[in-house]
UniProtKB/TrEMBL annotation:
Protein name per Swiss-Prot or TrEMBL: Unannotated protein
Domain Major facilitator superfamily (MFS) profile: 11-388
Native source species: freshwater metagenome
UniProtKB keywords: Cell membrane, Membrane, Transmembrane, Transmembrane helix, Transport
Keyword Membrane: yes
Transmembrane recorded as keyword: yes
Signal peptide range: none
């Protein structure tokens, strides 16, 4: 199909709708896992560890996910991941011991890795370069929408029914995602050509320069985004804002972030990836510094909105960079190692903030994150191509290394 006639709407039912449903399930569940752990007798640190098993499960499955997708194809891999996630959530909902809850959460995290890689790989292969950034920015927006809608549904269920209802809600949404993929006709989402099986580490070694440059840049972006979700509420608590106000302001900021998703893709497709990556990194770096000046509700909301503006301009940038980097015929293997690197940055961010806060205080922690953003911006300026041009896709040559 000519690139000029390609329609992004063709991805609505097979990719974006299941992703939204899966995101609603995950987004609604994550905030209540610590409370469930505490109800089973966990201390606050242990409850944090139980929640962290989601990310541990994702990191564990990032590399094996490539092999699974090669065997099943993207549609069946997404379908299977949603079904297994539903079972993992069901196990967690029935848990009477912490280890059972932890196992269910770990299974959910592993399913997130498979589901995420399958849709990323599929869009990388089937969407023309001219539309790639918009497609992946929409996917990023769908992820944001799920994590925005999910907690709202979860809060309503807790008020109207009980905490357990949130688990059943997540089971239903994951099952719905799987059902949609089951009933999608194969010609609506045909399997893409299989990539080289079992070559993940070989591909990662050969493409190590790309991973060490733009892969690390993407990991920094992912870390900054997670630091935003951790740092904003921590700073709000440190200046004495009530939890209800924090939740409201985070929700308002999240809505602005979501609204900018498609605009980010238009910027990248028209002007180039650098025009999304640099504003995001510099903007997040600046706003983490400004956060230390927020001393009341008004200034906190202003900084939170600025931070969302910076983050929203880069919606989908991590997915787009990964897609641009992926070698033809080895995208699953490369994207598996790329996503492992990015997920490691995401997992490290809360640890960095917690450690620096404990040792030197929360203000120094915010400046530390700001400094990481400057490093990421320098790397993006150095390695991301200037213009949006298919001939300037990030290739494994010395010119971009």
């Amino acid at each position: 199909m000519p690139a000029s006639s390609y329609k992004l709407t063709s991805l609505g039912l097979p990719v974006f709708t299941p992703s939204l449903l899966f995101g609603i399930a995950e987004g609604g569940l994550l905030p209540i896992i610590p409370a469930s752990a505490q109800a089973l007798g966990a201390s606050l640190p242990t409850a944090g560890i139980i929640l962290g098993l989601v990310m541990i499960g994702t990191l564990f499955a990032d590399i094996p996910a490539a092999r699974l997708i090669n065997v099943l194809g993207e549609r069946k891999a997404m379908m299977s991941a949603a079904a297994v996630a539903s079972l993992g959530i069901l196990l967690a909902s029935l848990a009477t011991a912490l280890w059972v809850l932890g196992l269910g959460v770990f299974i959910l995290g592993a399913s997130v890795a498979v589901f995420g890689l399958a849709r990323h790989s599929y869009l990388t292969e089937v969407v023309p370069y001219s539309h790639r950034a918009r497609a992946l920015s929409i996917l990023g927006g769908v992820f944001r929408a799920g994590h925005f809608i999910g907690p709202l549904i979860g809060a309503a269920l807790i008020i109207l029914i009980d905490l357990q209802a949130v688990y059943w809600n997540a089971v239903v949404f994951c099952a719905l995602a799987a059902l949609i993929l089951i009933f999608i006709k194969p010609d609506r989402m045909p399997d893409t050509p299989a990539t080289v099986p079992g070559g993940t580490w070989k591909v990662a070694k050969r493409e190590s320069k790309k991973l060490a440059t733009l892969g690390v840049t993407s990991a920094i972006i992912g870390g900054l985004r997670t630091a935003r979700l951790v740092g904003l509420p921590l700073w709000a608590l440190s200046i004495g804002l009530p939890p209800a106000t924090i939740a409201l302001y985070m929700g308002i900021a999240g809505a602005l972030d979501l609204a900018l998703s498609y605009s980010s893709g238009q910027i990248m497709d028209r002007f180039g990836r650098r025009w999304s990556a640099l504003p995001t990194l510099l903007g997040l770096s600046l706003t983490f510094s400004l956060l230390t000046l927020a001393t009341n509700e008004t200034t906190f909301l202003a900084v939170a909105l600025l931070m969302s503006l910076a983050n929203g301009v880069g919606s989908g940038i991590i997915l787009v960079i990964g897609a641009d980097l992926a070698p033809k015929g080895e995208r699953n293997e490369f994207l598996a190692s790329y996503r492992l690197l990015v997920d490691s940055g995401v997992a490290a961010a809360p640890l960095v903030i917690s450690g620096v806060t404990a040792l030197l205080g929360i203000s120094i922690a915010m400046f530390t994150v700001s400094g990481l953003g400057i490093v990421g911006a320098f790397m993006a300026y150095r390695y991301v191509p200037r213009r949006a041009n298919p001939s300037e896709q990030i290739m494994p040559t010395s010119e971009n290394m």
